[in-house]
Amino acid sequence: MNKTDQKKDAKKPNESTALSPAINKELGHISVLKFGGTSVKNLARIQHVAEIVRDRLEANKKQNNSGTPTKLLVVVSAMGDTTDYLLKLGSQCARNPDRRELDSLLSTGEQISITLLAMTLKELGIKSRSFTAAQIGIFTEKVHSKARIVDINSENLAKALKENDVLVVAGFQGITADGDITTLGRGGSDTTACALAAATSAQICDIYTDVDGIFTADPNVVPEARLLKRVSYGEVIEMARLGAQVLHPRAVELARQYKVLMRVRNTFKPDHEGTVIDGGEDMEIYRSISGVAVDKDQACVTIMDVPDKPGIAGSIMQSLADNHIVIDMIMQAFHPTAGHNNITFTVHSNDLAATIKILEEIKGDLDASSVIADEDIAKVSLIGAGLAGQSGIAATVFKAFGAAGINIKMIATSEMKLTCVVSGKDADKAGKIMHSSFGED
Amino acid sequence: MNKTDQKKDAKKPNESTALSPAINKELGHISVLKFGGTSVKNLARIQHVAEIVRDRLEANKKQNNSGTPTKLLVVVSAMGDTTDYLLKLGSQCARNPDRRELDSLLSTGEQISITLLAMTLKELGIKSRSFTAAQIGIFTEKVHSKARIVDINSENLAKALKENDVLVVAGFQGITADGDITTLGRGGSDTTACALAAATSAQICDIYTDVDGIFTADPNVVPEARLLKRVSYGEVIEMARLGAQVLHPRAVELARQYKVLMRVRNTFKPDHEGTVIDGGEDMEIYRSISGVAVDKDQACVTIMDVPDKPGIAGSIMQSLADNHIVIDMIMQAFHPTAGHNNITFTVHSNDLAATIKILEEIKGDLDASSVIADEDIAKVSLIGAGLAGQSGIAATVFKAFGAAGINIKMIATSEMKLTCVVSGKDADKAGKIMHSSFGED
């Protein structure tokens, strides 16, 4: 499900957004820097970000002796909890706020942060300008709250880059061909940054955040977690998809597609090197497992007693996909005596209410008996490019879980991951056990 | 000065914005309703405004038996003191915030209020949509913070009106041909409303505010002030220009140009009739004087010892006009022995610092000795279409001021007004005396 989604997302810009090499050469050396909401939480932090941008511009200029111009594209999210505040306003106006209006409302959050950052940069003497998605031309499909980028106006980009040293671009938002404002959903600003890096063949896309980089596990849960110096796109995608709150998989997928060199860095320690994300071609040599992810924002949904006919599972999944709900693990349990299946899958907690609503609507058509949900679950996953070759690790994990009295509700494995669904209360313990079981401690 | 400004403002839309009668007939009966910042101060008030809009839509539909559709165009300002808050943010980022960035920042205020109102209207079951200036296509000249409307995209308007019953349009903002966001300056939302009414040949443009309508004087200063049932464009323009805080003259000028029937109404007393503003063709018959205006946000600037050569005053005024500073009363005092003039004029307090800066710059070229300013002044004016024919009133006012010990610093008269500049401390007293002197008490 998810994979198809991501591919569509990544493919479209391929067709239209990449600048021609000739234009790109003229534009010069471009780096993309993305700052999230905590990095621009208040005016003092915007000032701090402006100084990072200034220092970076100067450092890049020094490094670049070829005489070609040095440019920065800075993507910012809304300040701190602005988006939550706007969402709350919206939900007070309507039980189910119109999504077109909601997207236009939310997009003001980034418009505020880009203008303030651009003003601050100008005050530092830097040739800078802010651009909303509509102004620079980040076109998306006509889907509200979860839109995917389909095109970036390369003419606008080239013109803006010629006239300025630093473009401050609103993350998270887009515009449809009709002029409606859209938002890109979770991970939206990272996606904006990677798409702009792809469209300008940028030398690097730095994602500034409030942590030092990507760790082998969440340091808040597993104190022994180690910072990774380098990790592959594929591993980060799996880690993120499995709940490690570092980068949204769609952004990394886009980076992989366009071979955008990414780096995760700490806004508050600008001299730290962070974690580099690239193709990871030679990585399997020295590391087979890259980390542990714990995701508590998950729910299990079971649709009970579905007749055992071909195509049923597919039609359920289609109904959910049509509503832009991404489902993850799927398990089908067959009751041979009754000739019926129970189909269980996991969704993000945010999508649970919508999922139940949809399933209740199609329950009759499916001839299913009922829909039940379990919100008290967590996904605990082991991620590594070389996991496939090391089946012994799975056995070790299962044994260790058993010894600790942790019940495994669902299991899924792939070439790069091993995921267990456990009770919410066991989540942190399971994460620690998994981390130690592959010797990262 | 001011007059030329206003004329340009009004003329441009004439060339391009008015919908052709054919389109207009198809669009149906259109009313424009404008709600200011206090009317949408919080979510409870937005709910209240939504109910006014709903009731109006239903009333208009009942009234209109011809079968042509009934549509509303609702223009809103930013919620309460949002604009001030955003201005403060901007001024904390830069001593002199970039005006392009500042306009983009300020425009988020209306974008928030239009989306919230559109959501609330949808929740009431009304086919409604929000539009920023960029989305509907309100084009302005490329001047930040004081832009004038030059065109409205009538195709966009027609399409949006066909698809919806109520369009909620952001006041105060515009967009340049390049896609930069502009703001219209003081009175901007009223101007947006009048321009939209002109472009759609609307039947009426209702300006909802927090007072009952237009009074013969500010009721807070002159308790005996009476509500006017009807007043002419010209009188309102003079009243506003002279400091009565009802409507900005540029909006009324636009309405006069296009014969837009205006009405000022109280948001919190939606059943009150308010004040109708129209051409006032038959008004002089029954009333010669329409009101008293007191404006304390004024300052006097004097440029001292300017050589008595032709064209000097003109070149001073040109320098100020180039910087979009509107000056009002001008007085030139000649010192015959020295062959020099002192030129004194009034400006809005907000423009004082910029005015002094410009005059200090050109002082040398002019051969003037110094620039002095007096912030402690007020303009007190008597307004009436029939003032010209009643010279006795001026004498009465001057005598009454003298008796009350009020010193008159400057005097200006025109066909429709009599203005005195007095000390700030005498302002309210002078207003009361003027009001009683023409028998409105």
In a nutshell, what does this entry contain?
Chain A has 441 residues and is α/β, with parallel strands linked by helices.
Task: Walk me through the structure.
The structure is a homodimer of 441-residue chains. Chain A is 40% helix and 26% strand. Chain A starts with a helix and ends with a helix. The first copy, chain A, is globular and about 75 Å long. The first copy, chain A, has 2 domains: 2-282, Acetylglutamate kinase-like (Carbamate kinase); 293-437, VC0802-like (2-Layer Sandwich), CATH 3.30.2130.10. In chain A, the strands form 4 sheets. In chain A, strands 3-6-2-1-9-11-12-10 form an 8-stranded mixed sheet, sandwiched between helices. A 6-stranded antiparallel sheet of chain A has the order 14-15-13-16-18-17. Chain A is α/β, with parallel strands linked by helices. The A-B interface holds A 43, 46-47, 86, 89-90, 92-95, 97-98, 100-102, 104-105, 107-108, 111-112, 114-116, 118-120, 122-123, 129-130, 132, 134-135, 179-180 and B 43, 46-47, 86, 89-90, 92-95, 97-98, 100-102, 104-105, 107-108, 111-112, 114-116, 118-120, 122-123, 129-130, 132, 134-135, 179-180.
